[in-house]
Design goal:
The protein is mostly beta strands and 234 residues long. The protein has one helix and 13 strands; from the N terminus they run H-E-E-E-E-E-E-E-E-E-E-E-E-E. The strands form three sheets. An eight-stranded antiparallel barrel has the order 1-2-3-6-7-9-10-13. The longest helix has 17 residues.
């Protein structure tokens, strides 16, 4: 009997050690950055309008604009839903309209508002370096990249290149870097939306041209207005 219990104990002892060791499941640790920043890069596509224009000025075709740049997001509250951002970007703006820029016999630049039947084509375009400064609100969290946002601010622009092209059917006038163009332009803007799709609007606060008048004597104080979409990328 003693031999039987001794053998039984020995078999049980070997059976315990023969079993595979059960290791606890190790789950990967996901680190979450609670000091996140949002919307560092931007890209916009807009339809360009002219406001405060001379009488009888009209726009035709699609006057498009594009811009892109980088913004440094600087949250100012603990939950990081309110922030200030400043950055740098580039813009291209194109305007099709009947505000003509040409030259007289002496080479002086002259301005007019002509009927569309009086010329073949006419447009103005400009390129700028932009400095946007904005106040930001969003309901984002560090766990989600989809959220509502309302961003508003001021954009300062330096026009480093401009060109007017008028084809009146007989002559083509190309005015490059017109000294009458206001090279320092500024305005206010608002961007709002959810996730990828955001509506964007900009209103210029100073004129496109410095103290010019049409050949009929009307002062030109027209300003730019852009309406379109803006996309933000981390």
């Amino acid at each position: 009997m003693r031999l039987f219990f001794t053998c039984l104990f020995f078999v049980s002892f070997l059976n315990v050690f023969s079993q595979e060791e059960v290791k606890p499941e190790i789950k990967p640790v996901i680190k979450i950055d609670s000091l996140y920043r949002e919307d560092q890069f931007y890209f916009s596509v807009t339809y360009n309008l002219l406001v405060n224009t001379p009488e009888k000025l009209k726009q035709d075709k699609f006057s498009a604009g594009i811009s892109a740049g980088f913004l440094r997001d600087m949250p100012i509250n603990k939950s990081r839903t309110i922030a200030i951002a400043a950055g740098l970007g580039l813009s291209y703006q194109n305007f099709y309209q009947n505000f003509t820029v040409s030259e007289d016999a002496n080479g002086a630049v002259i301005y007019g508002v002509n009927d569309y039947g009086e010329f073949v084509s006419n447009r103005y375009r400009q390129y700028s370096v932009d400095l946007p400064i904005e106040f930001r609100w969003r309901n984002s969290t560090y766990e989600s990249t989809k959220f509502w946002r309302i961003y508003g601010g001021v954009k300062l622009s330096y026009i480093f290149s401009s060109k007017s092209i008028l084809d009146d059917g007989e002559n083509t006038y190309k005015i490059v870097n017109n000294p009458d163009v206001n090279t320092f332009q500024y305005g206010i803007y608002l961007a709002t939306g959810y996730n990828t799709w955001n509506v964007y609007a900009y209103y210029g606060l100073n004129p496109l041209f410095n103290s010019v008048s049409t050949i009929s004597g009307e002062k030109v104080n027209m300003k730019a207005m852009n309406i379109g979409l803006i996309f933000y990328i981390l």
